[in-house]
Amino acid sequence: MRPFGEPSLDVRDVQGNILRGYGFAHAAYVWLHVADEAAGRAWVKAIIPRVTTAEPWHGDKPETTLNVAVTYAGLEALGVSQGLLDDMPEEFSAGMAARADDLRDAGEDRPEHWDAGFGTGEASILVTVSAQNERALDPAVDELTGEVDGKKISVLHVERAALLDGSREHFGFSDGFAQPAVAGDGNVAKPGDGSPEADGRWDESPLGEFILGYEDEDQQVPLAPRGPLGRNATFMVYRKLRQDVAAFRRALRERAAKLGLDDEELAAKVMGRWRDGTPVALAQGPDGHEQYLRPERINDFRYEDDPEGMRCPLGAHVRRVNPRDALGWHSTRSRRHRMIRRGMPYGPPAPDGDADDGEDRGLVFIAFCSSIRRQFEIVQAQWCADGNIFGLGEDKDWVLLADDRPHAKMTIQGHPPKFVVGQPRMVSVRAGEYLLVPSIAGLRELSR
Amino acid sequence: MSDRNGQASALNIFTPIRPGEEEALHAFLAALPRGAGSPLARSSPTHFARWVIIDRLPTECIKKPDRLRRTQLLFTSSFDGDKRSYLEDLVDVLTEEIPEIWGRCEGCPAGPAELVDWLLDHSVKSSFFVAAYNQSTVYDVRNALAAREQTLAFALRAQDMDAEQRLHAFREAFP
Q: What ipTM was estimated for this complex?
């Protein structure tokens, strides 16, 4: 975790975990359905004192933390006035399921295949409980689920998540250490966290990119409801991604053999980082990574000296989701599309080998941003589900998206280029919702 | 102010929708097929075009959007060639759709020649126009895409071939 400095906003009003990760190893995502407005408001009122804010911890970390987010359907269920609801950005009001076409979600990723209760308007409130260990998590979750009556407020779903050894995600890549640098959030930015500038500096994102009520990259205050709901709050993207580890390993092995590459080399090329997190933009081989693994070095790289993707392929996953200066004019075309990510893996680690053990595992992808449309949706739909902006035609992110078209491929640029042919399904969307993470004042407003 | 960017031209046509017709027009436009099945795909000089119903003028920072006296239909297009011949062609390929679209607007004439004049009368010059393809016509773009498909199919097939097979396959694919 980055050192905590002097923030320029009221940290007692902002929920924790948005601007600063807790660094906890366990989490539970408790989804509630609110059927009764008065009961819902009373629930919000009662939970406020337990909500973890962004106030720095002096001394020991707490055993558990608790945060609350609300869907558009949840705001309706809590009886928020139509005037305030009308102020909400269109994509948030519609919800992720209704945005499936805009997100280019296809096949098994479509909402009709999701886990029960998601994308249907039933999901009202998400309570995220994070904990240092499972022993602390269980009673906190039991308390939450035990105190709702099952009628006026009911538990829709509980998703548990836990870090894997070495902070890796299920495909085996080190994850979660690349975040945008935010001006005035109280964190001390490391090289590579921000947006690359012409003079070699890394520029911080304005607070308004991630917190409602402040100026964003365009010197505008992002679209948000009037009053406390639209200040010190943010929007949240929840997307449960199932990962088929066996399919990923098989796909790598078969294609690496065909292309005369080592499995690990191909893994690094499709991801844009080696499994230990070392960027392929910096290290071309599997050895000598120690110098790049320091926190102040691991994100300190650009693509300006590799415009044709000879080192890091143009369509590598990390280059797509954070193109840095790869789109030209330094960071001008990428800096309005950053996200703070707080995802965590769910399900047990996969055993060795590439036989399918039938276990459900993957990533609970969580992102915070001021504009779901401009930040999450552009990255998902334009940068992952299409290749045009990178000069890659209709190529999709090879790791993230299945593609059954006859010429589906990923290109590893070179002389000659190598084509990773065929794009089997390795990740599928299992659930998704857009949420508002209100400030403490916003939660009070919701409880009245 | 220019409606020209390279070989591409811009057209913006605002026509007031007859009161009471807004919903039917919206429903008709929303139901139009997209992609290759779109009626606009029949217009060969069109790079990009769309109809938008404008009922208010919101911006991200103004909380109280301006109300318009009359809901407007905006047609905006980026195309090759000059405006009049473009509209003549468009009116010709959209004979079925036009009564359902501009036919719901105030004062829309019936005859094709009058319709083109009426559309030109309602056009507004662009204050800033950037065409995605200002050096290539739609015809060039379509040819380039077809060439890309053909090259790609060959490249994927040829990856596993030895030099002689590849030469043979190349001659076959690109006679």
A: 0.77
